[in-house]
Write a structure and sequence with these properties.
This protein is an alpha/beta fold and about 100 residues long. The chain has a single domain, classed as 3-Layer(aba) Sandwich (Oxidized Rhodanese, domain 1). About 40% of the residues lie in helices and about 20% in strands. The chain is built from five helices and five strands. A five-stranded parallel β-sheet has the order 1-5-4-2-3. It comes from Portibacter lacus. InterPro entries: GlpE_sulfurtransferase, Rhodanese-like_dom, Rhodanese-like_dom_sf.
Length: about 100
């Protein structure tokens, strides 16, 4: 399974881990409005999401988030099924953090 992290632990984790990639699985519009530093957009609604994920190296550590954690939980499960091992998930998403910034 994946590990659920608080926002603070999530950000500290991917910023300290040189082998980590942070994936924002919200839409491009959501990503363009605001995203975590160094996050890469992998739009959950994209028809090429599975193909795009398959191109990622399995030996990396992945930190995955979305707005409410629904999409990111599904992506975590998809990646787990694809053979990815090191997956961390932002518990409850970034919705509250975005509202603070708005």
């Amino acid at each position: 399974m994946h590990n659920n992290l608080s926002l603070e632990d999530f950000v500290q984790g991917y910023q300290k881990d040189e082998n980590a990639l942070c994936l924002d699985v919200r839409t491009k519009q959501e990503y363009d409005f605001w995203h975590l530093p160094d996050a890469i957009n992998f739009d959950y609604l994209s028809k090429t999401l599975a193909d795009d994920l398959e191109k990622l190296p399995e030996n990396k550590t992945y930190y995955i988030y979305c707005r409410t954690s629904r999409r990111s939980l599904r992506v975590c499960q998809l990646m787990r099924n694809m053979g990815f091992k090191e997956i961390y998930h932002l518990d409850d998403g970034v919705k509250d953090h975005i509202q603070e910034k708005a």
